[in-house]
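USER: Note each token:
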Amino acid sequence: MKIGINFLSFRSYQGTEVFAKHLISELLELDHKNEYVIFASAYLPEEMKLKADNLIVESININPEKTIQMGIYQQIVLPFKLIKSGITKFFAPMPSIPVFYTGKKIITIHDCAYDRFNEYKNLAGRLYIKSMYISGKYLCDTIITDSNFAKNELLELYNIKPEKIKVVYPAVPKLPHVDDAFINETKHRFNITYQYFLYIGITRPRKNITGLLQAFKLLVRKRSDIQLVLAGKIDTSFIDIEKEIHALGLEKHVIQTGFVSDKQKAAIYKGAIALSFPSYYEGFGIPVIEAQSIGTPVIASKTSSLPEVAHDGALYINPENIEDITNAMEKLLDNAQRKELIENGYKNVQRFSWKNSAAQLMNVINGE
């Protein structure tokens, strides 16, 4: 059997891409009976490139950021390519499928953040995402989602039949080993000179970065020898973080690293007092289990999927309450508070496995 996989929209390497890379990589190791074809743009990042004996990669010279052009390709050209290639099933590890393809379609809808928050860069993007969610309901055989919270969101907002939705948890991305020398080198590279709290991820409104900065400002008033590191691609489409930092007078205390490699990510996790993750909304929240796996305490919101994912391996806060976030950070300056969270985090991440997740996906592909 020949199975198509949609990587066409991937140009960066963040949450959705991390999920896709690790899940498909494990699937290719697990399944040697089927043949797989990945359709990707020529802009696919190096971190996303996979190789396997049973894998073919078709590279398309279209920029994923050209929404209309990419949409036309996926909906008009791609269905013919799939038929010509003899592909009988098509899996999208993101909410994007060729509507007119008549084979079995499996779509991934990670959450309903686009329904809950106005985070569209343009009208075309908004309409396309909405149409994909509706297509998932009516035209796909199975919808994969990240958590029971995300499943319940789909049930509530789209009234999809429960049996059509399968929860496939992400797991911990494979981070490289780093020693103390590399941790210190990474700190020096990013001008980290004090103890620091870490946020890693995108900077969209639902991530509550503004609330985190305000909370950190209150902490700095008590402790001037402390920093906040914001790691991940800098995106000013929704929030100008630099402007927020300047308005709060935190220029000497907040560092934006921009994109970090996996090795740098491991180093800044290991060096941090804690991961501060005060999101309003998460379909899963991979940084939470990344931090737990590496022995970094977690501060997380008691909202959306985060209690389901972090269990008792996090210190929970109300993301609407700035002082609550500040108090949590202040607590974790105490090593005794951190020790219990670290131990609980190590235990919690044992629940998640890419091999198990890939086996679940393989069962869906095989119709089991």
